[in-house]
Amino acid sequence: MDLLTIFQTLYKRRLLLIGIPLLAAIAAFFFTSGYKKTYKSTAQLATGFTISEEVKITDERFNLYEADVKFENLIETINSPRVLSLLSYRLLIHDLTSPNLAFRDIQEKVSESPELMAINRDSVRHLLTNRLDSMNILVSYVDKDREAINLLEAYEYDVESLKESVNVSRINRTDYVSVISYSEDPYLSSFMVNILCEEFLRYNSSINSSRSNEYVRVFSQLVAQKKKELDDKAEQLRLYKSSNSLLNFSAETESKISQITELELKREDERRNLRSITLNLTDINDKITKVQGAESSSVNTDIVELRKKISLLNQQYIAGGSNNSELANTIQEARTTLRNLMARANQTPSASEDLDYLLNKKNELEIEKKLSEQNLSAIENKLFQLNRNAGGYASQEAQISALERDLNLASEEYKNAQEKYNKSLDIALASGSSIRQILVGQPASDPEPSKRLIITGLSGVSSFLLCILIVILLEYVDVSIKSSSNFTSLIPIKLVGSLNHVNLKKSTVFNLFKIPREKLDSKSNLFRESLRKLRFELEKLDHQVYLITSTKQKEGKTTVLSALGMALSFSGSRILFIDMNFSNNSLTREFKASPSLEYLLTKKNVDINSSISKTEVPEIDIIGCQGGNYSPIEIFKPERLQCLINSLKERYDYIFLEGAALNFYSDSRELSQYVQGVITVFSANSTIKQTDKESIAFIKTLDCKNIGGVLNNVEVENMDT
C-alpha cells in the first residue's frame, strides 16, 4: 500500500476521522468536570549514596551500579507496607486525638455503617500507638486489628490508598530522593510527606542498628570459635611432644646425629687398633715359634705374596673410586706388615732372646685384643640404638609437621576472624545513616492544575491517531477488488468498464435514463455516464450475441445486463434478453416475463413471438425461463439453441444471454460456444479466491470471445483510482 492510497483512504473516511476524536474530546471534557482540587507537597531526602561524607572504614571505590541498587532499595523501603503503615498510624492518631483539626471527616460514613459506629476509637488509638512504637503492622485475623484496619480504610489512610497519594522517586542523576504527596488538603499533603520521611528515617536507623549489632554478635562468636580451635591445636602439639619426650625436637635431632658421627669415628679407630694388636700378636707368635725352633716358611716368600696382595688391593681401591676408607686402612696395614717382614729379612733372630719375655708380651697383646673387641662391640651397640632412634624421629617429624601446619592454619583463621570482628566494631561505631531530610514539605497555596484541557486534547489526539491506525489496518487487510486499479493487478483480463454503486431500491435502472440529468444526483449521473462508456466499447465490436456471466453469485449480472440494454436502446438498437440462468432466474422475475424458454427449445412448431415478452421499454424484449436444477444441454439440443439465436439475430441488433455463476455451475461454459462475446461481471466488494482464479483461467481460454470484465458496485470515491 503506497502513500497515495493511504491518503486517499483517509480522505474517504474524513468524517469518521473528525467525528470520533471530537466525540472523544467532548466526553473527556465532560468526565473531567467532576475532578476535585488536589494540593501537592514535596519533601527531599539526601542519601549520600553518590558522595562520601561518612568516615571511611574500607578502601572501597564508588560503584555506580551499587549506588543505583541502593536507590532502588531505598525507594522500595519507603513504599513498603511497613513504612506506609507507620504513616497511616500517625495520620489516624492525629485525626482521633484532635477531631477539630482532623484532616478528614467520616461522620457520613459512620452514620451509614453500624460496624464503624461500634468501633471504640480510644482503643484503636491506644492500639495504633503501641504498633507505632514497636513498628509492627496490623494483622487482619485479630479482631482489634481488624477494627483499626476498617477505620483506616474509612479515613482512606490504609496502605493501598496511601500508595495512590504518595510518589517516591529519585531526582535524575542526583543524590536526592523526592517524596511527593497529593491530597484534597494542603496541610494533609505536607503532613504526609514530612511524617513519611520522619518514620522512614526512624525505621531505617532501627534496621541499621540492629544489622550492625547482629554483625558484631556473629563475628564475636566466630572469633571465639576460632580461638578455641587454635588452643585445641596448640594443646595437641604440646601433648604429642610431651608424650614422646620431644620438648626440643630440632636440638635433640641434631644431638643424636652428632653422637652417631662421633661414635662412627671411634669405631674406626678401635677397628684400626684391633687390627694393629692382631698383627703384633701374630708377630710375637712367629718369634716364639722361631725361638722354640719351629721353622716357618721363607720370609722372602711372604714378602712376595704380601706385595702381590698390596698390588691387588690398590687396583680394587682405584677401581672403586678411591673413596673406600676400609680398603685404604687394609692397604696401610699390609704395608706396615711388609716393612716389618723386610726388617726381619735383614736381621737374624738372636738366640739370646728371652722366651719368657715373648710369652709375657703375647699375654699382654691378647688382653689388649679382648679389651679392644669389647670396646668395638659396645660402640656398635650404641650406634645401633642411636640409628634406631633416628628412624623413629622421621615419623615423629612428619606428625609434628602436620600438627604445626594445622596450628598455623588455625592461627591465620583466628587472625582473619579477629580482623572482621574489629572491622564490624568500627562500622557499628560509625554506622550513623547518611540519609537525612534536607527539604521539609510545605502546604501549597494553590491547587494543582486540573489538566482538564490537556486530558481533553490528549483524548482527541489519541482517538484521532487510533482511528487512523484502524482505518489503515482495515484497508490493509481488505483484499476486495474495490477499484479499477486493483482489478487490473488482481484479474488478468481486460477491464471494459466500471459502474459505480447506486441505490436501486427506490428506482429502477430504466428510470435513471428517463429522469433529466439536472434532476439526478451525482451518483446516478456518474452511473449513467459509465454505462455510455461501456456502450461505446460494445458498439466498436462487430458482435450481436453476448453472454453476461460472473465467477460467483450476486455479482450484479442482472443489473449490468438491464442497464447496458437500456443504454443501447437509447442509441436506437433493438435488444433481446434471454434468461438462461436456470439456477436463479432473477432476470425473468424482475421483468415479469413469461417462463417460455424451456418450452420454446424442447417443443416443435412453437411460435417464437408467443415466447417473447415485452418490457416497459419498447426497444427491449425478453425471453424468460422457468429455472431448475439442470444445464442448457440437458434440456435441449445444441442445434435448437443455435437455430433460435440465428433466427433472432435478424430481428434484434443485440442479444444478451445471462448465464449462471462459473464457480458453481457449468451453464456459462456450455453457452459460451453459441455466443460471439463473453462479458464477465465482478463486484467491487468481492475477493478473488482460488475458485475465481480457475473460472478466470477458463475465460482467458475463450480468446477473442473474451470481451473483458465489468467492475460493478464501485464506491464513488474509488471510481477514479
TrEMBL record:
The name on file for this protein is Wzz/FepE/Etk N-terminal domain-containing protein
**Domain of life according to the entry:** Bacteria
List the keywords (alphabetical): Cell membrane, Coiled coil, Membrane, Transmembrane, Transmembrane helix
The topology of this chain with respect to the membrane is:
Multi-pass membrane protein
Q: Which organism is it from?
A: Roseihalotalea indica
Output the Pfam families linked to this UniProt entry.
Wzz
InterPro entries reported in the protein's UniProt record: Bact_polysacc_biosynth/exp, LPS_length_determ_N, P-loop_NTPase
Report the residue ranges that make up the Polysaccharide chain length determinant N-terminal domain in this protein.
Answer: 1-85
Q: Which GO terms describe its cellular component?
A: plasma membrane
